[in-house]
């Protein structure tokens, strides 16, 4: 096995066209590497990220950001009421080995795997967002994820 770590910005340049083609004309914006956000239904923002995990793997992280939930950092409170400042409040980590790829095996591996992995991850994202994209769905969505993680998903 060849060890060749790929930077976040290089991964983003490879995967951005794939992600954006799958989310084409749906209002998603990217303000940082490996993260796309859409204000779907204020105060809810949909987030699709590719997250770098320990062990050298890139995997989808699907979430929503809620404008009314503050983030506490030290002694300060920060709000995230824009697409640029959106932070995950309800997170769905899929934990499916078929939806990840290595960032330690060079750009060629990412170019090879990403076109198969990303479209499937976005299908999962859309399924999740359909359960939590309106305020009246939030309580059930939090409860469903609690049970998902209680059943052994980290």
Number of strands: 8
Percent range of helical residues: 25-40%
| Structure annotation, total helices | 3
Average predicted local confidence, pLDDT: 92
What sequence of helices (H) and strands (E) makes up the elements?
HEEEEEEEEHH
Helices and strands: which structural class? alpha+beta
Segments where pLDDT lies below 50 for 5+ residues? none
Task: Tell the overall outline.
Answer: globular
Short overview:
It comes from Shewanella electrica. By secondary structure, the protein is an alpha+beta fold. The protein is 33% helix and 28% strand.
Structural description of this entry:
This protein is of the alpha+beta class and 154 residues long. It has helices at 8-22, 107-129, 138-150; strands spanning 29-32, 35-41, 44-53, 57-66, 71-73, 76-78, 90-93, 101-102. Strands 1, 2, 3, 4, 7 and 8 form a 6-stranded antiparallel β-sheet that branches. Helix 1 crosses helix 2. The longest helix has 23 residues, at 107-129. The chain is globular. The protein starts with 7 loop residues before the first helix and ends with a helix.
